[in-house]
Amino acid sequence: MIRKTKAKDEYVVNLDGPDGNAFALMGLAGSLATTVGYASDEIETMFTKMKSGDYKKLVKTFDEYFGGYVVLETTNKELLNATG
């Protein structure tokens, strides 16, 4: 069967996969920040905050800035509690 591709209505990042590593998330954050119109000083503040702690802090900060644009998925209970 062939069918027309459905438009994605949400952008999902699987934190358990390769797109969920710290470098990938920071790269995505930089791209998204520019796309949604954050000023350069806001981007610098965001990156400073992302790098100021461990991986949970980075994920939580990413979610604070881009939770309205990106859905983060994981099976990791610590991460679910950190962002929930």
Report the sheet with the most strands, covering strand number, pairing sense and barrel closure.
Answer: 2 strands, parallel
Judging from the principal axes of the Cα atoms, what is the shape?
A: globular
Give the fraction of residues assigned to helices: 40-55%
Report the C-alpha radius of gyration, rounded: 14 Å
User: Which strand-content bin applies to the residues?
Assistant: 5-15%
- Mean pLDDT level: 90
Strand/helix succession: EHHHEH
Report, as a whole number of angstroms, the end-to-end distance: 40 Å
Structural class: mainly alpha
In total, how many beta strands? 2
Strand order of the largest sheet: 1-2
Detail the poorly predicted runs: none
**Helical segment tally?**
4
**What number of structural domains do the residues give?**
1
